[in-house]
From TrEMBL:
Belongs to the cytochrome c oxidase subunit 2 family. It catalyses: 4 Fe(II)-[cytochrome c] + O2 + 8 H(+)(in) = 4 Fe(III)-[cytochrome c] + 2 H2O + 4 H(+)(out). GO terms for molecular function: copper ion binding; cytochrome-c oxidase activity; oxidoreductase activity. One of its GO terms (cellular component) is plasma membrane. Its cofactor is Cu cation. This is Cytochrome c oxidase subunit 2. It comes from Phytomonospora endophytica. Keywords: Copper, Electron transport, Membrane, Metal-binding, Respiratory chain, Translocase, Transmembrane, Transmembrane helix, Transport. Residues 35-131 form the Cytochrome oxidase subunit II transmembrane region profile domain. It is found in: Cell membrane; Membrane. Its EC number is 7.1.1.9. InterPro entries: CcO_II, CcO_II-like_C, Copper_CuA, Cupredoxin, Cyt_c_oxidase_su2, Cyt_c_oxidase_su2_TM_dom, Cyt_c_oxidase_su2_TM_sf. Residues 133-261 form the Cytochrome oxidase subunit II copper A binding domain. The chain crosses the membrane at residues 58-82, 103-121.
């Protein structure tokens, strides 16, 4: 006995749903992601600052809202496919308009957009906020193709925001390490010597362009000690991809000791070793910039 049209349609829908589930599972497995990684939606697990926590939460809730809307729309599509499938040659009743549905389709997106806009504005204001008197101020200078970090004054005035001659400058052989204290409001003042660069620490979920002739700034508080890779996020020339640095977050006491050792003439590596830190970058390494060597 031939199967009824309704049962055939049900089997087709079930097959489609099954294939979708299998496709989602295969995508996760073949991408090498764990189940936990999948729920991070591509964002880093480490969130060392309050600003990164807020941005991560915003991203996750936005993704959940988008998935909820998607599931709702997909459910309506499948429901219409099953409920209103063709049952004969007669033309079904035609509806010219439906006021409740039109109101629903107009008001619901507006509410979703308004909620997202509200939280986006709040989080953006918190992330870009700069205090008048931060705990630390560090000058970041970008150049083709590396970084220089100039540390705050170590004079008698603890509130001074001018900078001393304590500098760390990267080169082709040594990755520059930016040492910062944990639990402190740190203002970064940015400047470029040549073209536009971009100061980007992926774990902070934030970046800021470094523009020649313009002093950009931002503020962040890093609460978790650790080493965080930094990169240039603006295509700036031949060795853009090799323009890396490392942020080393240490307790305030170690940071003050580090600065004092630098003032006394210690190198970045010697001062880091003295406070129990690895003297060289652990999150990235220098790249060979010799074109002839690469060709050979």
């Amino acid at each position: 006995m031939a199967a009824s049209p309704s049962s055939a349609a049900s089997r087709r829908v079930s097959r489609l749903i099954g294939l979708s589930v299998v496709g989602a599972v295969l995508t996760t497995v073949l991408a090498g992601c764990s189940v936990e990684d999948a729920f991070y939606f591509g964002w880093p697990r480490t969130k060392p600052s309050p600003q990164s926590e807020q941005m991560f939460d915003m991203w996750i809730y936005s993704a959940i809202a988008a998935l909820a809307v998607g599931v709702f729309v997909w459910g309506l599509i499948f429901w219409c496919v099953i409920r209103y499938r063709k049952k004969g040659e007669d033309l079904p009743p035609q509806t010219r308009y439906n006021l409740p549905m039109e109101l629903l389709f107009t008001v619901t997106p507006f509410i979703v957009i308004a909620v997202l806009f509200y939280y986006t504005a709040i989080i953006q204001s918190n992330v870009t906020k700069v205090d008048e008197n931060p705990d630390q101020t560090i000058q970041v200078t970008a150049f083709k193709w590396n970084w220089q970090f100039q540390y705050p004054s170590t004079g008698s005035d603890p509130n001074a925001n001018d900078v001393d001659d304590v500098k760390t400058t990267g080169d082709s052989n040594v990755i520059p390490i930016l040492v910062v204290p944990t639990g402190q409001n740190i203002r970064f003042l940015e400047d470029s010597q040549d073209v536009i660069h971009s100061f980007w620490v992926p774990d902070l979920l934030f970046k800021r362009d470094v523009i020649p002739g313009v002093t950009n700034q931002f503020q962040v508080t890093i609460n978790e000690p650790g080493a965080y890779v930094g990169r240039c996020a603006e295509l700036c020339g031949t060795y853009h991809s090799m323009m890396n640095f490392e942020v080393r977050a240490v307790p305030l006491a170690d940071y003050n000791t580090y600065l004092q050792l630098r003032v006394e003439g210690a190198t970045t590596q010697d001062a880091l070793s003295a406070i129990g830190q690895e003297p060289y970058a652990v999150t990235t390494k220098p790249f060979d910039t010799d074109r002839q060597a690469e060709q050979g």
